[in-house]
């Protein structure tokens, strides 16, 4: 697609645009959805697209092209120019990165065997069977295979190519209507993909939910399963973007240099993580992706930035372009030194939450929110799981959640599924004094 | 382009499809954002492609492409067929579709003020009006994110059972997030949206700039005068916006047949409602909930769904009784009934699944004054910020943004963050009176995998709930 990119760039410059970025995508994505132990639909998507970002005297515009004949390209650019010319400038725009850059291959991001995989249904059956073997009666979920090619060309002497693959599965197992468990496996290479693990975990948790009792409101020490905490980290990834901070969607506003988490907490965005589902060689302006520490020893160090925002705040880009909106690639919460068993032994009276969904905020800037446990939730008494519970809600504050983390597991899990957009690498997390509420009628 | 759609259906049948449909969608639009007074830039949306869905041996396959050549479309057909055949091998029971009446029809929504005739800067004026109104209020609003979007969707749907449905639907929406900071306190009106099918005239009728001014004034008043909501058992009056979210979350969603049958189990979840609950009481006699895609200029508007079935109003709850589910052809066949045209897809690259359109609590005959006149101690929750519900749609919560104490039949001072946390039967059985007003609010309903955010309206009148314990 570089020929298309070059043509777009050339025509854009001829028309008088300043900064120009063209991102070409070739995508092949397959999906197999299943429910009640059978496949409900299988899908295949094939896309060829070029995303175009242009700047004209600090006025910004973006579009996406799916038709690459010369006439369409020229007409599209003319529409962009006439639209953008009439607008007022974005006074706080400070340009895109200067190339050229050298890009390193990132381990475990491409596997030819995934491209050549003819029939992925066998993995679906493995996951379903693993859950059924654990005692589940009904299994639902989704499997994806991905093959992506990205072609980047910018007006600042950047040219980059990245090719990646991925395979992932999300499995939810049911013993009855209210007894369910969830497991996932995401990998960029086939060898590290483990559909059986996902199915087994879903089945195991579902089986543990026998005759759940109503949960009671109060303050509890909570162990978040990696699946559950990944949801919180996914929201954190959005709130760490400087765009969210400026737009009033983040509790991190005005808190750089302040302590916002327990002093043991180190939270990173790692764009070049081997085997990360969000990993890419370069960001959307071509800066090589890297590791960025967002929270170091409990202190907020930086927001996620692109070049323009970095210049605005007189610092360096964190390689998180998004040209209009900086974005995280893979969230990484550094592990602690507790085994899972040791973590449970820390809890006198608490709750183990295996999954959450529907996280919503009353106030983004203060961070007040709630999220709803789904799948197994269990009372912990004196270090042991004693009873499954149901119908509870986590009602708390984001900063308080991070401040009250008291212990972290030593193993890290990659989580990426329907409820977790930004892939998150997280251990089991123990948080003290978390608010739990339930319906009053 | 029409011939490409018909070509796809023809080829699918040649390759063995018992059922085949193809949907071409072309979308053109513009999106403009302004953050803290500065234009962020504009996005021009141009998207076009075709999606093909086939049923073979009881297995369902779907493929899409945006490369609109015969060769590429044929390849997509082959893929859909191959996937359907492979899927059929991992089924215990074949998928079948209900029999329906199909039509050859064209319809479009007319714009009085066609947004294609106006420049980006002219549309930016709407956002500037919001900005100016908020800034001139004298209230400290340090974070302001404003958004405008319009798009027109041209769609052509064909199946091998006689449906040929072409539609042209323009939509327009504005949204804002406003953060008020006064006296060391922060209050927020996030994601306040006004969306319609139609042209710019709809935005000019609703005047979001006036709503924004009202919102920041309310937030300031809340900071300055807001008190804690009362403890113990009280009566609650909910406004149309709260009634809307409540019917959407706890009636619309759990009545979606695909959730009831477990198809969405691993994503949006299942439902506490079961097929055998039709005819059971779920709410008081004054509760009727309607789902109607055909409301003119509504954000969720359509006349034929994405399986080609003609739309009609659906009465989900009638006089407190569970009356009807939202259903597509697959589950209509399963239950031995007809589809009620609930299948929607957001674009050519998504399968149609069971969705809401415009859901509302049907009005009763009370004025607002009559609703509150006999309340000794209560809370009026006019609108909300935080909301969520469990994945069986049984336990929900809505936290008020603008809310007031009701004392001896009168509205008093604002109350901060009253929390209505309640089960679905608990909610609908507590309603003892419903207002005669009716208002709708804009939403983007999320469901499906990959996610399909569809435009919806949700609404209702004011309604009174007796004997509620609010959290605070």
Describe how the helices and strands are arranged.
The complex is a heterodimer of chains A (441) and B (472).
Chain A: H1 2-15, E1 20-35, E2 38-56, E3 59-65, H2 70-85, H3 112-116, H4 121-133, E4 138-154, E5 158-176, E6 179-187, H5 195-208, E7 213-214, E8 218-224, H6 226-239, H7 242-247, E9 267-270, E10 291-296, E11 299-300, H8 307-312, E12 331-333, H9 340-345, E13 349-353, E14 356-363, E15 368-373, E16 377-381, E17 384-390, E18 393-397, H10 398-403, E19 405-408, E20 413-417, E21 420-426, E22 429-437
Parallel strand pairs in A: 7-17, 8-13, 12-21
Antiparallel strand pairs in A: 1-2, 1-4, 2-3, 4-5, 5-6, 8-22, 9-10, 9-12, 10-11, 13-16, 14-15, 15-18, 16-17, 18-22, 19-22, 20-21
Chain B: H1 2-14, E1 19-35, E2 38-56, E3 59-65, H2 70-88, E4 104-108, H3 120-135, E5 143-159, E6 164-182, E7 185-197, H4 200-206, H5 208-225, E8 233-238, H6 240-252, H7 257-260, E9 289-291, E10 314-318, E11 321-322, H8 329-335, E12 343-344, E13 353-354, E14 358-361, H9 368-372, E15 377-381, E16 384-389, E17 395-400, E18 403-407, E19 410-414, E20 419-423, H10 424-430, E21 431-434, E22 439-445, E23 454-460, E24 463-469
Parallel strand pairs in B: 4-6, 8-15, 14-23
Antiparallel strand pairs in B: 1-2, 1-5, 2-3, 5-6, 6-7, 8-24, 9-10, 9-14, 10-11, 12-13, 15-18, 16-17, 17-20, 18-19, 21-24, 22-23
How large is the share of residues in beta strands of chain A? 35-45%
**Please, how many helices of chain A?**
10
- Quote the average pLDDT of chain B: 97
Q: Which stretches of chain B are low in confidence, meaning pLDDT under 50 for 5 or more residues running? A: none
Q: Helix tally of chain B?
A: 10
Largest sheet of chain A: 10 strands, mixed
Largest sheet of chain B: 7 strands, mixed
Structural class by secondary-structure content of chain B: alpha+beta
Pick out the low-confidence regions of chain A. Answer: none
What is the count of β-strands of chain B? Answer: 24
